[in-house]
Design a protein that fits this description.
- It is a single chain.
- By secondary structure, this protein is mostly beta strands.
- The chain contains no helices and 6 strands.
- It has a domain of about 90 residues: Beta Barrel (OB fold (Dihydrolipoamide Acetyltransferase, E2P)), CATH 2.40.50.140.
- Strands 1, 2, 3, 4, 5 and 6 form a 6-stranded antiparallel beta sheet that branches.
- The protein starts with a strand and ends in a 43-residue tail after the last strand.
Length: about 130
């Protein structure tokens, strides 16, 4: 899935547990009639993908939805969802450049008295039918 919005927050990399699991979050705000503030997680090596972005940039994030179940110490079961990003690209629109059609180079003028004489190709009836279609 993809979602586009303006970056509001980029957190530093956080490490968890003894195995060194790393997570970094980015929060974007969608630009629609009813803007939504949405948090994404980037894990492990994907944390570095956020290094090239800054607050205020418009980005498109490609992500997966992950869900899990957790039972708290009181025995209550809780459910959580995470949006895990794995790609982020700039979605900023470059300023419009005026499009100017290229001007072809001028053709050399044909001067009277030049030695160009068209030569017919073929003879007889096929002179009338030399079109390629």
């Amino acid at each position: 899935m993809d979602l586009q919005g303006r970056i509001k927050v980029i957190t530093p990399i956080q490490s968890f547990g003894t195995n060194g699991f790393q997570k970094r979050e980015v929060v974007i705000v969608t630009e629609e009639q009813y803007p939504q503030t949405i948090s994404f997680e980037f894990h492990q090596g994907n944390c570095e993908l956020l290094n090239n972005f800054q607050v205020g940039q418009i980005v498109k994030i490609t992500f997966d939805i992950r869900g899990r179940e957790w039972t708290n110490p009181q025995g209550e079961v809780k459910y959580f969802n995470s949006l895990v990003g794995w790609r982020i690209v700039s979605a900023e629109v470059a300023p419009a450049q005026p499009s100017i059609a290229p001007v072809p180079p001028p053709m050399a003028p044909i001067t009277p008295g030049s030695n160009f004489t068209p030569q017919p190709q073929g003879t007889g009836d096929d002179l009338e039918d030399d079109l390629p279609f």
